[in-house]
């Protein structure tokens, strides 16, 4: 963590005047929580009605909830199952997942897909805590195949992940400020005035030329007719199929900054994205604020996520985005040493604030420019519902949306 005598400065991508942030008070402490125990769930500034839930018949006591959502074309549900430690047998885990999927489809005939996550009840923190015991993605057309699975035939179904551990042990606590509620609103640079001046010079140059300088990408070539579409906090078991469906229908490509533990728990969604021409990038393994990690922990967060992505997809990881947009000169050097480029953004319609579909669309259209980089979130409800309109708006403005790897730079 930087010395408290150094200024914590906010770097605005729009090149607004510099804003100073107060330093921590002397003697203040950071809360210690399990690594990545809480990840963003789009709380927003405008309260949304709860996601609709299914009532299963007959009910399953272990099913905490079955939420569902549509993007206007495809409707998906996510069943959250919590199982007590004393009942953790392979047969019980699989049987519960199968019954949850079957009864969800029976409860709502319009569902196209049901995704299931089975967690150990003790120590459950929500998505972002200890890994689930089992996850599965069940398209309606493959329900019969899923229901026929036994613990001995799991490898015949490619949309299921089985935790190699038979019990869940909460991950160790670590000092540090987790990014559970910290969103990528505006990049925040922690460092000295001279370091910030250098960074701002790179940013200004990038806006004119679209060059990658010092291992940072702020902007693509402003002479191009494309802009990059990026999603943070991927992948999520309810939203991933909806986002992927919208991209498939419009033909747009995107870069997904994935949280490593989510890729580990839902590998089939990562494979889906790459198979359809999208790019995966690094957002740390636990979605942690990197400026408060030791060099050893930061390196582990990045390398672990890189290894997961490459092992699953064969894709080399090129880009990294810091959770919460918080970074420093030291973290930039550490990321660059691993061969990664830090990718920022030029257009953030603040979908995580739940401002409403029309507001998101208006902000998107106002700020998106040639060579720009659009920031959205994989797990924001209003994004899943408005994405086709956003892509069509970009095309109407003469811009094609691409992954970062296809964004022209000079």
N-to-C SSE string, H for helix and E for strand: EEEEEHEEHEEEHEEHEHHEHEEHEHEHE
Q: Which structural class should the secondary elements be placed in?
A: alpha/beta
CATH architecture annotation name of the largest domain: Alpha-Beta Barrel
**Sequence stretches where pLDDT stays below 50 over 5 or more residues:** 1-43, 167-183
Report strand %. 15-25%
- Name the CATH superfamily assignment of the largest domain: Glycoside hydrolase/deacetylase
Looking across the biggest beta sheet, what order are the strands in?
4-5-6-7-8
CATH class group of the largest domain: Alpha Beta
- Structural domain count: 2
Radius of gyration, CA atoms, in whole angstroms: 21 Å
Estimate the mean pLDDT confidence.
Answer: 84
**Terminal Cα separation, in Å?**
34 Å
The CATH topology of the largest domain: TIM Barrel
Q: What is the 3D form?
A: globular
Written description of the protein model:
- With 410 residues, this protein is α/β, with parallel strands linked by helices.
- The protein has 2 domains: 63-162, Diaminopimelate Epimerase, Chain A, domain 1 (Roll), CATH 3.10.310; 192-406, Glycoside hydrolase/deacetylase (TIM Barrel, Alpha-Beta Barrel), CATH 3.20.20.
- The protein has 10 helices and 19 strands.
- It has helices spanning 90-107, 143-147, 193-209, 240-250, 260-265, 267-275, 295-313, 329-337, 357-367, 381-396; strands at 8-10, 19-21, 33-34, 63-70, 75-83, 113-120, 134-139, 160-162, 173-174, 188-190, 216-217, 226-234, 255-258, 279-282, 319-320, 326-328, 341-343, 373-377, 400-402.
- The strands form 5 sheets. Strands 4-5-6-7-8 form a 5-stranded mixed β-sheet, sandwiched between helices. Strands 12, 13, 14, 18 and 19 form a 5-stranded parallel β-sheet that branches. A 4-stranded mixed β-sheet has the order 2-1-10-16.
- Strand 12 (226-234), helix 4 (240-250) and strand 13 (255-258) form a beta-alpha-beta unit.
- The radius of gyration is 21 Å and the shape is globular.
- Mean pLDDT is 84; it is low at 1-43 and 167-183.
């Amino acid at each position: 963590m930087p010395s408290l005598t150094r200024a914590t400065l906010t770097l605005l991508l729009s090149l607004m005047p510099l804003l100073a942030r107060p330093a921590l008070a002397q003697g203040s402490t950071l809360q210690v929580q399990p690594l990545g125990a809480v990840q963003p769930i789009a709380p927003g500034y405008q309260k949304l009605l709860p996601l609709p839930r299914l009532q299963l018949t007959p009910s399953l006591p272990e099913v905490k909830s079955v939420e569902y959502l549509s993007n206007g074309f495809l409707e998906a549900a996510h069943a959250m199952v919590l199982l007590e430690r004393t009942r953790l047998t392979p047969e019980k885990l699989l049987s519960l997942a199968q019954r949850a999927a079957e009864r969800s489809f029976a409860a709502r005939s319009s569902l196209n897909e049901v995704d299931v996550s089975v967690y150990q009840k003790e120590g459950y923190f929500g998505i972002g805590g200890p890994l689930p015991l089992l996850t599965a993605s069940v398209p309606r057309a493959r329900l019969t195949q899923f229901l026929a699975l036994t613990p001995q035939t799991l490898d015949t179904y490619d949309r299921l992940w089985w935790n190699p551990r038979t019990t869940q042990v909460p991950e160790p606590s670590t000092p540090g400020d987790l990014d559970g509620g910290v969103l990528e609103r505006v990049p925040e640079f922690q460092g000295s005035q001279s370091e910030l001046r250098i960074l701002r010079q790179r940013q200004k140059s990038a806006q004119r030329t679209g060059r990658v300088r010092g291992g940072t990408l702020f902007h693509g070539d402003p002479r191009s007719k494309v802009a990059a579409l990026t999603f943070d906090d991927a992948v999520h078991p309810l939203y991933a199929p909806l986002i992927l469906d919208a991209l498939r229908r419009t033909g747009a490509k995107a870069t997904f900054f994935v949280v490593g533990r989510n890729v580990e728990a839902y590998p089939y969604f990562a494979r889906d994205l790459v198979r359809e021409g999208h790019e995966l990038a690094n957002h740390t393994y636990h979605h942690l604020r990197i400026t408060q990690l030791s060099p050893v922990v930061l390196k582990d967060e990045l390398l672990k996520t890189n290894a997961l992505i490459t092992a699953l997809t064969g894709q080399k990881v090129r880009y990294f985005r810091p959770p919460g947009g918080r970074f420093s000169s030291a973290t930039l050097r550490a990321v660059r040493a691993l061969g990664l480029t830090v990718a920022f953004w030029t257009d953030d319609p603040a979908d995580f604030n739940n401002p409403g579909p029309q507001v998101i669309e208006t902000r998107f259209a106002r700020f998106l420019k040639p060579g720009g980089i659009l920031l959205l979130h994989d797990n924001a409800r209003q994004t899943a519902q408005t994405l086709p309109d956003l892509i069509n708006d970009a095309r109407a403005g003469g811009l094609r949306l691409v992954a970062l790897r296809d964004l022209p730079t000079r």
